[in-house]
Amino acid sequence: MFEEAATLSIGELKRYRAWVSHIEILAGCINTSKAFPSALSDRSHDPFLNLRTATQWMTSIGYQTFLLNSNSGGADAVDPASATMDQIDRYRTEILGPMYRDHPFFDVDSLEEWINPGTFGVFLRCYAQESGVDTLQTHDSESAVPTSPASSFCDLNSTAGSRGSLVPASRPASSMSIHSTSSFYDGNYKSRPQSSLSMAPSESFDPDIAKISEPDEVSVTSKRSGQFKGKSRVEGVRITSHQSVNHLVPISVLPRTWDIPNPPKSTAYLFHAVTEADRALLKNEDGTLKPLGPLIRKEDQDSWDTKSGGHASATGDVSVSQLLPHSEETVRCRRITMHCNGLDMCSRLDPSLLSDDYRRFSADPSESHALWAPQMQANANEASSYMAGVARCYRHAIESKCKISCDGNPKLIKFSGGRTIKGHTHFIGCSKFQSTERNQHRYYMLPDNVEFELIKHALENDGQLPNVTVVNNLCSFTSNPRFGTKTCGSSFFSSAIFRIEVLAVYSHIINGTIFRSPMVRRKCDAKMIILVPTTDEQRKHPEAQLGYKAIIYFLSPHNHPAWPVSKMGSSEKQRLSAAINTIGVRGLTASKLLKSNVLTDAFGTAALGESSTALLNMRNVRHEIKSYKKQEFRYGTGWEGGQTFKLAPFYPEATCRAIILDGEAAQALGLGEFLKTYNVPSISGIDSCDPIELLSYCLKTCVVHFDRHAKELAAKDVPRHVIDRIREFPYLDSQMKIDEWISEMPDLVEPFPAANNWLKHKLNNRWIFPSLNQVLSWISFEDYKTIPNHSNLAESSHAARNAETEIHVGLLDAILDAQARDNIHAANLCQMELSGVLHKRGNDTYHREVNSVQRAMWQKRVTDERNMHIQDFQSLQNELEEGKSENNASLERSKGIKAEIQQCNKLLQEDRRSEHVSHRLKQLRAEEKAEMETRRAWKIRRAEIDANLQELRAGPLACKQIPARSKTSTPALAICESPSQPSTSGMHAAIDLAPSANGSNSEGREGLSEFSLPPKPPASFSNNVHLKNQWADPTQAKDQWQSNPWSGIGFGDSNDHQWDESVWMEDADVSVGAFERPNYVIENTPLPNTSNYPPFYSTGEMPLPTADPNSEFPEYSAEEWEMFLSNIPAHLEATEYSAGRDSTEFLGDGLTLPPPVLNVEPPVLIAEPPVLNVEHEISGSHGGTHISTVVETNEHPLRCSSRTRKTRRRSKDNVIGETTGKRPRKE
């Protein structure tokens, strides 16, 4: 029995069976590469050579004859009919196993059916019956081959007393060591057939370096006694003084996976890039040569550790022969020793996947796939297991780390707001969390598909689950050491937020406990020696081209299967680079490149995975594109790269003259906010900070969109003549015609609600008309006329692109094209399954969950940082305005001090002995000096503020919209109109705490801050008072206040003095954005009715008015008033409470509270208000109370128009029809 057959791979067994089971007759000549007929591989045939019983039908002699016959080519064919009976019996005994020697199929009468003449000739050449002493030729020279079939008979059981030199105990000989040899003859490399019976190399210590022996110098003799008795003596190829090999194999291209000869030290490789194409792969882009040592390591798929670091080893450089043709002179070379890093595998790896005695000499795809396929199945099992999802959640929470140095533990923390939209009440945070270290600690939201109780139990019991569960007791995960995997299937990247480094893809739950399975290193004994000529030697022998040469040999095989070809080689990179240069990197993506015909032509197939499996990994393609983009665009292609975008109105040297939009309010207002920070007055000469005014310098609205929306009014019963009049506006060429159009339109559109709402929308958005008409625009006449009036040039590019790519094709053509693409995709999928190189490496269930969590955490962090920067920016702006006001006040005080000093000086001239005047003069000069010091300090501080603001604008807040800043201050009084005869059925109070839209001081209401509350209110209050009825004219408001100060009370921003009457227009359609005042909800806008509970104000002991119409309004002190306002929440959820509900269900039967005991004159309120609008309307009858509340906050979720956050207009002077002319730009 041939016991060694059990150690052969399935591929080797199949090749041998195919050799002994096929015979073909082609053109009258017998194909001698096969031994027996094909029927032997047919399961229905008798006999059938089953792979499971290979040890019974294989023999050592037969297998070695197979190795020899693979390269014979039929030159030794002998007709079996010319042989003797003893030769036939000997052949059948030596080639067939004991099970089939006496089988009827192999009868002598049917020789032509089962004997192959080529195989029989090789057998007779090596085994001679007449000779008692057999001779074995290690080189197949003509002089060594017997001339007669019966001239010799050699025993092939062993070459040196054991079979290990032929086939190792666990693996077959590699194809390279079996099928390829070479000899160095007359300076030329010639490939010659190799016998698998080459002896182990003789490690000669002779100081003389051996050269290649002649063919007749090397021979091995043995006696046929079952085993060789004596040692063979081989004069091989001397590489160094301590290393010789039998064969030196020339190669011109570096392999992707090296085949290790069997035995390893029997053969060395001489790498020599001969052609220009091969040499181009060894050069950098600047033409310099790449170092061969690192290049060989980089090309190989195995992970190698260079002990010498690419330099000479500890034993120094060595002298190497065989590098100079036609010369016995040696060359000094650097000796680079590389050790294989082996394989990283899960500590719970299934032992059946990889045995301890495994050896690899050559890459076998079937063995690699056998190790890779179980991982594919494990991915599917991981996604379909619920408990695996629980384990992933637990591992993610445990192994995530805080961004800062922290020894805290993961902890379940309850949301302060109660329950989230998804129903979560807790999240996983850090036990050492502090409010001052926001976003610095771990934060993990529980997945929706994981039960809270399971995670809670696991966190409280160190990963122990309530039920005994076993998931993935045995694992299949292995990893190339170059990935640096730490735990089973760990992520190949680290989180930039919470530094998540080691997280498991395949979950392991052993006996109900979530198990962290570390990766263990399977050490490999494979060792590769690279001999590279030194630089001095390359200069010394320029004609030998030593820079393109190296000698490589191995000392031991690998103990793990070959890795998938996932790294791109020099050849693939070269072709990929050529395709990128042809297409160009502008707008190039990996998907576009892989689908391009240029790349298909470069690799010769549309299914690129068949030509190079490395292209199946998108990461390789993206990396190459990114490197080329970095060369062409040094600063990147994002907003941070290139030069500053410049507009001609703000940078005179710019060539971009304007921006054309389609009338979208959000786009226009966002551009206006950007222009506030973009404008530099010292460069542009534009001092305005109003975003609406800045838009008029560079914005044009597409007249095609304007005309299209105007035509749509016809479907809403607007007559044709009204639509035509509307469409005339962009073409009005004088201010008089525009004024006429403005005055005519309100009466023209009034009978038609749709047209009326359209006009109100345009009047409220005062940037629209200047962007449509050149007369109102601040763009220069020449620029306005040369800039297109529409955006169709950009939008028509879609049709041009469709025409270029031939999208408009017939139905059958489209189906056939789709079929071709599907076939290519299917071929790539099959190649991925076979090679193990996936489109995306981290695309399993775990990595998708991790990426989702990281995106959420990143978004939260960015939002928090942005809000923090905006808060800093607004506080600096507030400080800047307060400082400016204080500085101006200081200047005014200094003027008064100087005037008083002048008066004192005059008095001293009249009476120099006046001590009072002298003392006063000293005080004034000290005050003047103090004011100067104050202004000097403010000047320094202002420079710091300006620098900080500029840094925020150019850095974290670049291209960011900054909302209107809020001010926390004391409320000022606003005036509300009330009926002339107030009713006594209820009470109304309005509190306006909303900020000014632009935060600037305006004219018209300064006098209101001088008024104070009267000592006593009337006995009853006005009813049905609405904010929309407030006086727009401050003069009328002041007169109304003086005549009836208690007709209505409102608290508004003292800076909010300009009013826009259009905001209060009645009967407007909210859907078209007629009322787009920010932070304001008009009366007929529906508000969310999420709960029916009134807002809670913690007023302490603050007394409230009763519902009794005869009760008096109490008087409050300044302290009481401040206490009341301070207890009103600054931000409230917008909620509407429907009237008609009985308030007793939450207020009780009585609403009367004890009156205050304080009777102090109310203070004069002159400060600015905080941000809140609260309107209460209470009416009582027969003990029942009905409450209606509308709350408005600075961040209200509902807007009158979701398309924009328009800046509030407050002055009739802003109406376009009243514009008299343009303000000249400052030079």
UniProtKB/TrEMBL annotation:
Biased composition regions of type Basic and acidic residues, renumbered to the chain: 296-305
Amino acid composition bias (Basic residues), ranges on this chain: 1202-1211
Stretch list, region Disordered: 292-316, 1180-1227
Name of the protein this chain belongs to: Uncharacterized protein
